[in-house]
Amino acid sequence: MSKETTPLVEYFKSYIPLSKKEIEVLNERFVERRIKRKQFILMENEICQYYTFVVSGCLKMYNIDGNGEEHNLQFAAENDWIVDIDSFHNKKPSHLYISALETSTVLQIEKNDLVYLYTYYPKFDRNFRVIIEQKFIELQNRVLQNISVTGEEKYEFFLKHYPQLSNRLPNTQIASYLGITPQFLSKIRQRRIKN
């Protein structure tokens, strides 16, 4: 695959055309990693070092409560981003984990490289602002759902937001994201099949 047509380059080009130099510097500043299933790229109390773009596979960001229960905050599959933004920007220990649900290939950028892109290539500053705004909108919608809709409606939203993941993830992972039990999710899925 040409360096001018990588998934990351295509992602940015979907927002705004990039010059050859911008493509070159983008490819120089990101590092590719292969992540095994269940491998962590962030653990609680570590400082999040990378903004991560998923080329293939699926990652999750989650918290573990005092009872040892996992609470999934986000999934990131192909052409999506994942980061503990607070830890990354403020250089403070994370309260979250990020791990691979599937064997994955990711591209990662460190904060100083990201600041370099912002400073010398303003298109990336605008692009990352859009990315952050979209994630903020997702978060607002998620909070609104958690306080105002039924389990069935949460699942419908999940299917719209993550259509490619509904058959790739086990019920336990989806249920954790929705804040319902796996048994209740199974009932919701069975009702959908019957209707």
Automatic annotation (TrEMBL):
Instruction: Tell me which domain of life the UniProt entry assigns to the organism this sequence originates from.
Output: Bacteria
- Cyclic nucleotide-binding domain location: 33-117
One Pfam family it belongs to = cNMP_binding
Q: Which Gene3D superfamilies match?
A: Jelly Rolls
| TM region(s), chain numbering | none
Q: What is this protein called?
A: CRP-like cAMP-binding protein
Origin species: Chryseobacterium sediminis
Q: What is the lineage of its organism?
A: Bacteria, Pseudomonadati, Bacteroidota, Flavobacteriia, Flavobacteriales
